[in-house]
Design goal:
With about 475 residues, this protein is α+β, with helices and mostly antiparallel strands. It contains 13 helices and ten strands. The longest helix is centred in the middle third of the chain and has 59 residues. Keywords: Kinase, Transferase, Two-component regulatory system.
Length: about 475
Amino acid sequence: MHSYNRSIHLNTAIHKLGKLGRPGRDTLIVITGVVLTFVLSSEFDLAERINAWLLTYEYAQLDEVPLTLFVFVLLSVWFSQRRWREIHAEIQRRKQTEAQLSSSRQLYKTLFDGDLTGNVVLDMEGNIGMHNRAFDRICRPLDHDRNARDLFSFEWLAFVAQLKHHQEINFSKLQIRRPDGLPCYVGARFIYVHASQSQQAQIHGYLVDMTEQCLVELDLERTLKENRILARHAMQMQEQERKYIASEIHDETGQYLTAIRMDALALQKSPPDQAHVISVRIASNTQHVQQSIRALIKHLRPPALDSLGLIGAVERLVNDWKKHNPQVDCKVRLDTGDHALSEDINIVAFRVVQEALTNISRHAQASEVCVDIQVITRQGKPMLQIEIRDNGKGMDMSQTSEGIGLVGMRERIESLQGSFKLMSGQQAGTLVTGLLPLHASKQAAPLPLASNLFPDPGVNDYATS
């Protein structure tokens, strides 16, 4: 029974010793060693025996050193070495951990800043905290103290209340109010992060730049609307043109042909002395028919393009325009070199200049006009450049134009795989630029412009009789 209790106490002591850490166990060893040395010295008179042995080395005074103290010093040195090794190993582990943590932070920073998605952390007041470079690229230039309330196009308080309720809100297209005024649209996701002991509640935002896609969609929508207007206008103009041609043929050519037919019938029954008078009348009516047909041909297509080419036709167009606008100083520079221009390019270039001069005389109130047509080289390819510039009152480019003329010019040029550009501003004049590749093939017949169908007197009739 006694041995059983001793074993229980021994097991309990070993269990408690196992719970101690290495420093605790080493301290217990030192204390046990010192106590054991003291007990053995007292039990077996070790001190007297050691002193008798040390008398041989009296010169070193070793007998003055107490045995217990000596053992304590040795154990203390052993204890210190153990602690030093542990501290050294701990320092190495901490250095390795700090290096790994620094590498992880650098990797996180690289991934965070290199992400194409604009990431931002906001507080509940909308103040911008941490954000990456993609957020700067999408929303900047942005002041450091700028608030998200000024950045996003929604009402902030209502947004925060809704976000707290749903925990997450997604926007398929959200407009950003950039400080530089440039258009900006993003797809966005906002996540509500609850407050913790270490930080307050936050809003995490993730923005994907969709500006280019949205601008293309807006441009396609605008182009589709313009094309619908142009197609509807073209159909109206086609019907009016048919009505005009029918009226001209009926009123002018038809009545003279009727007179010629009646004179021809009368000529068969007329005596010889009246035949001469009837034949003169037939010749006069025939001349009127010829003039009417020639005027109708001029109206449908400028004959000067066939007889004089583009340069000669534009010169005659500008000279006649000057006669009806003497108050405007119009300068002309025309040079196509030795390049042979196709019929499609000639008619498109002529109609663009014609429409531009018509718009200037109607709306620009300009005092100076410059018409420049020349062949240039772009990326090693020859192109016909058409520029019409005026110093008139210009137009507001931010407002949608209801006019058909500019749309028609653009459609004509783009039908030949060219490019059209319009630059204007309030009281800053207007510059119309068209580029036509000389080797372009015609894709679709461009629709006629209103001013080409029903020209102003003296503006569109530029052919010789």
